[in-house]
């Protein structure tokens, strides 16, 4: 007979979940040279301050500050997402296409 501990452990590793159907805003990054201006304009449309969420390093590109305090580079391979808490983060375009359906 399997102990209760192992029943919980076995069950734990078989757990699955599905994302809730939430609507997010996104901006595809298509041109790195114009991306910062596009991002600033897009972020300002939500009433947010772009400097609170993004910064540019000469020679290194654009970076996004996440809720966790990390910074990630934003490239033409990314889509920038504004999440349900008003947070911004990059997502690779191929992952975005597998995860989201574009509504408009």
Polypeptide structure, described:
This protein has one domain. The relative contact order is 0.16. Strand 3 and strand 4 form a beta hairpin. With 104 residues, it is an alpha+beta fold. The chain is built from 4 helices and 6 strands, in the order αβααβββββα. The chain has a 3-stranded antiparallel beta sheet with strand order 1-5-6.
Topology:
Blueprint: H1 4-12, E1 25-28, H2 32-44, H3 50-53, E2 54-57, E3 61-65, E4 71-74, E5 78-82, E6 88-92, H4 93-99
Q: What keywords describe this structure?
A:
104 residues; alpha+beta; 4 helices; 26% strand
Quick summary:
This protein is α+β, with helices and mostly antiparallel strands and 104 residues long.
Provide the number of structural domains. Answer: 1
Low-confidence stretches: none
| Residue fraction in strands | 25-35%
What Rg do the Cα atoms give?
A: 18 Å
Determine the fraction of residues in helical runs and give it as a percent range: 25-40%
Biggest β-sheet: strands ordered side by side in the sheet:
1-5-6
Tertiary shape: elongated
Class from secondary-structure proportions: alpha+beta
- Number-wise, the strands total 6
Overall pLDDT metric: 87
